[in-house]
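Researcher: Next entry in the queue.
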Amino acid sequence: MRLLYFLAVFLFLSPFTFAQKQSLQQVLEKETAGFRGDVGIYVLHLKTGEEAAIKADTIFPTASIVKVPILVGVMDKIEKGELAYHQKMIYRDSIKYGGSGLMQYFKDSTETELSVLMSLMITYSDNTTSLWCQALASGGERINEIMESLGLQHTRVNSRTPGREEDWKKYGWGQTTPREMAQLLVKIRKGEVISPSVSDRMYRLMGNIYYDEYALSAIPAQVQTASKQGMVNASRSELVMVNAPKGDYVFYFATKNNEDQRWEDDNEAQVLQKRISKVLWDWFEK
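Model: Structure for this entry, 286 residues:
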């Protein structure tokens, strides 16, 4: 009887009880409950295979995250010898496009090169260079063909792409699902997109991001990441691969139909994406 008593006390006091540990899925569902809009999340730990998914197969607007498929399209041209990474280019005011980015402020007839276009597109989410790169990649139709060949059924460029006008009205420049865009980054990380060397080049470009005050801010500065952010008024999304000490993990955070469309730091979606990033870091690393 005394043995049974002490065993009962031990089980009551010990954290290692018969009660099941809360899963990552449950944690994320709790964190996203009450968000005023639609939230989609896909998370995968590459080493352990642990994953969690919330509306992971629902289509969301990409906003500027469509620039990752555009990057793939340009690199495909380079691999085929139709373009060169350091190919000289001439900027013209006629291609200027507003919003984010730096090239819109270049002087007309400024000499640049393709590598600069791609770097600005990814690092500073430059809209002018992105549209330029989309055209250099033979347009959205060709980029979408590549996405299809990679097994991505819903990841598409809509803007300036014949036949996708209705999709453009609904989703904007591009569309994807949390699972698919995360899968694309996993393929790049593993060297499976176009070629290992091309994948490495794209991964390096995605490792130099100016917009590090969102999900990246919850990850220690000493840890390498590859990412892309996409934000418009009613949709804030982020794609991140974390090269963490205990193993790489990828996540895609997407929102749409957001009620809070402000651009202040306490925007509801932006606060949530930071919190989700912190939850994932603590989950996998502590």
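Model: The beta strands are 38-45, 51-54, 60-61, 88-90, 111-113, 156-157, 174-176, 225-232, 235-242, 249-256.
Researcher: Noted, moving on.
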